[in-house]
Design brief:
Oligomer: heterodimer
Radius of gyration of chain B: 13 Å
Low-confidence stretches of chain B: none
Number of strands of chain B: 12
Shape of chain A: globular
Number of helices of chain A: 0
Helix content of chain A: under 10%
Structural class of chain A: mainly beta
Distance between the termini of chain B: 36 Å
Number of helices of chain B: 0
Strand content of chain B: over 45%
Largest interface: A-B, 24 and 22 residues
Chain lengths: ~120, ~110
């Protein structure tokens, strides 16, 4: 069974750094683009960026470029989303997603369970 | 960026009736070399992660009930639920994967009338 298991909820203060994770299993990790989607409280889905673990090719939405860093560790089949300095506006649910087809960009399937990040002083 | 616009923002339909959600892209998501529309639909129930329903605009994901169907081409697409069931209450999103960023529509909230 293909699964994406994300790290647990986080509560942070503004200005702090954070790295959340997403571990893939049940498939060839290096052959599928894996990405991140933000959902702010009560709002819709926002595509943040994706990485191809096979060669670390990474694409960001202009809205998120420079604000976050997406990375992957092939040796442990894990992708990451990282902030160097959190803001209150980063408070959201973050979903890890895998592309539905190998070696190409496509639809998202499956989705991780989500990681809730709360940033508050 | 390709802008995806869904209509309506919310919709109330009686049980057993048809529900129709529209999605319009600001530019064509039809790739001429393979004649495929790079458009997917997702369902998000309250408190849950989104779930893939349809890809290539009209291909139903395995396990998705056949009352869900997708249609359209180019810039105009439709998700149809032929006979609404109580478990279909959710927010529905379209997404283009033609070019990055793979943008989503704003979502359509479907409720029971």
């Amino acid at each position: 069974e293909v699964q994406l298991v994300q790290s647990g909820a986080e509560v942070k203060k503004p200005g702090e750094s954070l790295k959340i994770s997403c571990k893939g299993s049940g498939y060839s990790f290096t052959r599928y683009w894996i990405g991140w989607v933000r959902q702010m409280p009560g709002k819709g889905l926002e595509w943040m960026g994706i990485i191809y673990p096979g060669d670390s090719d990474t694409r960001y939405s202009p809205s998120f470029r420079g604000q976050v860093t997406i990375s992957a560790d092939r040796s442990i089949s894990t992708a990451y989303l990282q902030w160097s300095s959190l803001r209150a506006s980063d408070t959201a649910m973050y979903y890890c997603v895998r592309q539905g087809a190998p070696d190409t960009m496509s639809w998202f399937d499956p989705w991780g369970q989500g990681t809730l990040v709360t940033v508050s002083s | 960026d390709i802008v995806m616009t869904q209509s309506p923002d919310s919709l109330a339909v009686s049980l057993g009736e048809r529900a129709t959600i529209n999605c319009k892209s600001s530019q064509s998501v039809l790739y001429n070399s393979n004649n495929k529309n790079y458009l997917a639909w997702y369902q998000q129930k309250p408190g849950q992660s989104p779930k893939l329903l349809i890809y290539w605009a009209s291909t139903r994901e395995s396990g998705v009930p056949d009352r869900f169907s997708g249609s359209g081409s180019g810039t105009d697409f439709t998700l149809t639920i032929s006979s609404l069931q109580a478990e279909d209450v959710a927010v529905y999103y379209c997404q283009q994967y033609y070019s990055t960023p793979h943008t989503f529509g704003q979502g359509t909230k479907l409720e029971i009338k």
